UniProtKB/TrEMBL annotation:
This is MBL fold metallo-hydrolase. Belongs to the metallo-beta-lactamase superfamily. Its cofactor is Zn(2+). One of its GO terms (molecular function) is metal ion binding. Transmembrane segments: none annotated. It comes from Parasedimentitalea marina.
Length: 275
């Protein structure tokens, strides 16, 4: 069960902003989301990437418009989830399960395409989002307007699932699909409820570490994000520990994929158009 990652948008930044001690070279960061086809559950979506709900429309809040201007995502036309699924031979209706690693805009913007899917996520974080004001959520990088209105009834709480030991001493993970093939690994620091995904049964175990780091070079060299990217984390110390854990997993022989690393990986779907 090998995942495929697609790129929903490119984001132009200087390396110095996302890598401590980096240079001023311009990087075109990717914004990945994933698809994995399970023999029982069918196509499972991993996050949903950026979409027009962030970049277009008068109905957007002023805060979301400002966020879009500041981050400047350039949507990849052939990278939208519905387009990618068609390319793989599926419709949006075929997706019965979405794994949501956290609630930031670049992970939830495509959820509206999947009104009938159950969403596996951190329920405690979702409840906190629901209880907070819009301004308080903004401090956490959350836009409630991007979340489906019926999400309360569709969430499956990852915390309530069975613990299974992940390979390469990664520690325990939550068994998302009931057969030990896909484990949710708690990786706190970047955002509330942030977790990665371990594809435990691959010949070379893979950890999708999502937003633990911006670029793989930071994992390899064990370097921190630069300023101001380092301000994004909700818990900087926890983020450092998560980054160290990911680096150790890779050093023991595991593969690591990040959401935003600009380099093409063996798991990435080739793009037919560029951001």
């Amino acid at each position: 069960m090998i995942p495929i990652f697609a790129n929903s948008a490119g984001i132009r930044v200087s390396e110095k902003l996302v890598l401590q001690g980096g240079c001023w070279t311009s990087l075109n960061l990717k914004t990945r989301y994933g698809v994995v086809v399970h023999p029982t559950h069918g196509p499972v979506l991993i996050d949903s990437g950026y979409g027009p709900s962030v970049t277009e429309g008068r109905a957007r809040s002023l805060a979301l418009k400002a966020y879009a201007r500041m981050t400047g995502p350039a949507l990849v036309p052939d990278g939208a989830p519905d387009v990618v699924l068609r390319r793989l031979g599926y419709s949006c209706d075929a997706v019965r399960t979405i794994v949501l690693t956290h609630f930031h805009a670049d992970h939830v913007a495509g959820l509206s395409l999947f009104p009938n899917s159950r969403i596996m996520a951190c329920r405690t974080t979702f409840d906190a989002i629901q209880a907070r004001s819009e301004i308080a959520n903004l401090r956490h990088g959350i836009f409630k307007e991007l979340l489906p209105g019926d999400l309360t009834d569709r969430i499956v709480d990852v915390a309530g699932l069975k613990d299974v030991q992940a390979p390469l001493r990664l520690g325990p993970g939550k068994d998302l699909l009931g057969d030990g093939s896909l484990l949710a690994i708690d990786l706190p620091g970047h955002a509330e409820g942030h977790f990665g995904l371990c594809f435990a049964r691959l010949e070379k175990p893979l950890l999708y570490a999502v937003d633990v780091q911006w670029v793989l070079k930071a994992v390899v060299d064990q370097r921190l994000p630069g300023f101001p990217a380092n301000l994004v984390a909700t818990d900087a110390e926890a983020g450092k520990m998560s980054a160290k854990r990911v680096a150790q997993f890779r050093a023991k022989g595991g593969d690591v994929v990040l959401c935003h690393d600009p380099e093409q990986t063996p798991y990435d779907l080739p793009e037919t158009s560029n951001a």
